[in-house]
Predict the structure.
Amino acid sequence: MSILAGISIYPIKSLDPHFLTEVRIGAGGQLEHDREFALVDENGKWMRAKSYAKFHLLRAKYDLRATKVTLREEGKSEARVFHLLKEQAQLEEYFTRFFDIKVRFARNEQKGFPDDPREWGPTVISTGTLKEVAAWFPGLKPDDIWKRFRPNLVIGGTEPFWEDRLYKKEGEGAGFRIGDVRFEGTNPCVRCVVVTRDPNHAEPLPDFTKIFTEKRKATLPAWAEGSRFADTFFRLAVNTRVDSKEAGKELMIGNKVELT
């Protein structure tokens, strides 16, 4: 039986994950507090680790009940605590100093700042996939792959690439349910340079993209819709869509997962 085995959200876009045992569906269909905050540069564009590798050198720990974040630079012991709502100016000063550019701290309560602006439901991967991909890279463990690829929901009790059942041809969705929450899988996620880097130190793993792409092509399961890989095999995990009617419902570790 497939069950929900892991939940992670990223309250500040591109910074460290926050692991949970339960989470609510937000008003916009995202997981509550996922990518709720983001940094914006001088040109009004979201700042992402894809373009700013220094994101990897910041450690973030969250106390969401108190609406606070503790920030620390990798390798340093000094840490600072900020209220995410009441200390926006202080946060902007901190990030401006760290990145050495003028930074604005932004919030979007409705749907956050998702990587995919069209399909901003939680991203899904399976424990079988994390284990399989880790085996492609000596020295990496399944948790390392989780941290590199940054999915929201991890499904346990599955074979590798189980989540490739959660999409169909372009424009067609695939329904599934986790507990009482209904989802529609939409497409396999195209990955970027972020997954090639050590999530704590920003150092790239040599030939990561080449090895991953070759292995992904060789192990693509029969149930995957091959047309979704016509442009690239550098895809992993699945984007989803969640109807606004599901807002307020809860997901919990151990919830049963069913294809619908």
